[in-house]
Specification:
Strand order of the largest sheet of chain B: 1-2-3-6-5-4
CATH architecture of the domain at 107-192 in chain B: Beta Barrel
Largest sheet of chain B: 6 strands, antiparallel, barrel
Order of helices and strands of chain B: HEEEEEEEEEEEEH
Number of helices of chain B: 2
CATH superfamily of the domain at 107-192 in chain B: Trypsin-like serine proteases
Number of domains of chain A: 2
Strand content of chain B: 35-45%
Order of helices and strands of chain A: HEEEEEEEEEEEEEEHEEEHEEHEEE
CATH topology of the domain at 107-192 in chain B: Thrombin, subunit H
Structural class of chain A: mainly beta
Number of strands of chain A: 22
CATH class of the largest domain in chain A: Mainly Beta
Number of helices of chain A: 4
Oligomer: heterodimer
Distance between the termini of chain A: 64 Å
Radius of gyration of chain B: 16 Å
Helix content of chain A: 10-25%
């Protein structure tokens, strides 16, 4: 029996918690339960939007018990992400883990109280594709689920690998009754938009559509459905690009569009103002059009 | 260090098997079942630690059919030596020696994220093992006193019947006595150094 091996294994997990713990701050942004934030760049903290119930008098508390004032640099309810600017933050920054794989050990870590960091153990339960997140029809391009317990105040905390590198940001506010982890690269992309302009750009075509099963000739391994265009708004990017009622939308920039979530994912903020290739079926014949993606107001 | 996970798993199974020997069932005379830890054993007598709430109703004068069942299924009558409802600790005495005692770990230097295991008798089953990590280290004021007691929070799954059982570290040493279950999500254990101090205080009385 090799007790040393087991203790080393256990210590490594405690090391992982200690490492990410220094990058986690307690976020005071609501009346009762404080939440958590992740220091990811110089003087910048990523947290969950829903834990900020006020805009002013925000503070964070660091691992070395400094209480610092924080300002909202930007927030986005539809992805439940917000960025706080904290002068004099001066804590080690979180690093991103390699892509999460289902079955990997994972630790949920938060700083919900001044008593110190808290952790729970689980695995990566699911790595999912686009997730529609309600109201504005925004989508996360990817998300992670875990069975690690989210204790009260863990929103804005991190799901980390056994080395303490962050798979992503935890939130229980995005989907009712579920712990969703926003992968680090997805969260950082949103954070970039939030620090630059204070909000997230979302692409827009100006169509109303419904999902239809494609005729056999248009189907492929990756595509069984398309979006039948039932309305084209006046002066919309879709109208200017030549899309017509009755067209079946098949692909955007070569990515097959099986449903509205696929379309939302294809119209991400980076594409706003840029021409994209749109493949449609018109009268059973595939055609390529070019549409300059608009910005959703 | 590259070791296969199978090797790690095998080592955990060996560790648990060894640790199980000093875990007992506490049968409080039909009033309930809990778990206990053989804390001390010499040639003629032994002492078992459990939770005070497991032996509620038992007094030092009237042991009320209090019994201990060892891992190898031997049954012994037990007496209540000391109990502290505030710390939720009880010390039981057995008139039998030579029982396998638990290895007691140092709970004064625990770290959040450390692996932990619980052994207990939830829902009348025996020797059920659950695992997790130390979720947090806290302290609470003890009602009616000026004392502050530290406690260990973990994500180990516990159920009624686990009470009084050991929380083990990865080396198989007892670092806590499982005591409370909050909403199934958060388990609380009394650190082993608090238990040791309590026993020492009782011995002085």
């Amino acid at each position: 029996m090799d007790i040393n091996m087991l203790s080393a294994f256990s210590n490594q997990m405690a090391d992982a918690v200690e490492r990410i713990g220094k990058s986690l701050v307690m976020v005071n942004g609501r009346a009762r339960q404080p939440a958590t934030g992740i220091a990811y760049a110089d003087e910048l903290v990523l947290t969950a939007d829903h834990v900020l119930e006020r805009e002013n008098n925000l503070t964070v508390q660091t691992y070395d018990n400094r209480v610092l004032g924080a300002q909202i640099a930007g927030r986005d309810a539809s992805t439940d992400l917000a960025v706080l600017r904290v002068q004099g933050l001066g804590v080690p920054l979180a690093t991103a883990a390699a892509e999460a794989r289902v079955g990997q050990l994972a630790l949920a870590v938060g700083r919900p109280s001044p008593d110190g960091v808290m952790a729970s153990l689980g695995v990566v339960s699911k790595v999912g594709g686009s997730l529609r997140t309600g109201r504005s029809g925004a989508t996360l391009e990817r998300y992670i689920q875990t069975d690690a317990i989210p204790y009260p105040g863990f929103s804005g905390g991190a799901l980390v690998d056994v080395a303490g590198a962050a798979f992503g940001l935890l939130t229980t506010g995005l989907v009712r009754g579920a712990t969703i982890v926003i992968p680090m690269n997805v969260a950082l992309k949103v954070a970039g938009a939030l620090t630059e302009q204070g909000y997230v750009k979302r692409g827009y075509l100006g169509i109303v559509s419904q999902q239809v099963k494609l005729p056999p000739a248009l189907r492929s391994d990756k595509q069984e459905y398309g979006l039948l265009i039932v309305r084209v708004e006046e002066n919309s990017p879709a109208e200017r690009g030549g899309l017509l009622i009755g067209d079946i939308l098949l692909a955007v920039e070569g990515q097959p569009i099986n449903d509205a979530d696929d379309l939302m994912a294809a119209l991400h903020g980076d594409r706003v103002g840029k021409p994209v290739s749109v493949r449609v079926s018109r009268g059973g014949i595939a055609q390529m059009l070019t549409v300059v993606v608009g910005q959703k107001s | 260090m590259t070791r296969s996970l199978l090797e790690v798993n095998q080592a955990f199974a060996d560790m648990i098997e060894a640790a199980k020997a000093s875990v007992v069932r506490v049968d409080a005379g039909g009033r309930g079942v809990g778990t206990g830890i053989i804390w001390h054993s010499d040639a003629t007598r032994s002492e078992v630690v459990t939770n005070a709430h497991v032996v509620a109703g038992v007094t030092r004068r009237n042991s009320g059919g209090l019994r201990i069942v060892t891992a190898d299924n031997r049954r012994f009558a037990a007496q209540l030596l000391a109990g502290d409802p505030q710390l939720d600790l009880a010390l039981l005495g057995l008139a039998v020696g030579g029982l396998p005692t638990a290895r007691i770990g140092d709970s004064a230097r625990l770290r959040v994220g450390e692996l932990v295991f619980a052994i207990g008798n939830p829902w009348g089953q025996t020797g059920v093992v659950t695992s997790g990590v130390i979720s947090g280290l806290g302290s609470m004021a003890i009602r009616g006193t000026r004392r502050i007691a530290p406690y260990i929070r973990s994500d180990v799954l516990l159920a009624p019947g686990n009470s009084g059982g050991p929380l083990l570290n990865a080396a198989g040493a007892v670092i806590g006595v499982n005591a409370m279950i909050f909403g199934g999500d958060l388990s609380v254990a009394i650190p082993s150094h608090v238990v040791a101090e309590w026993i020492a205080d009782n011995d002085r009385l």
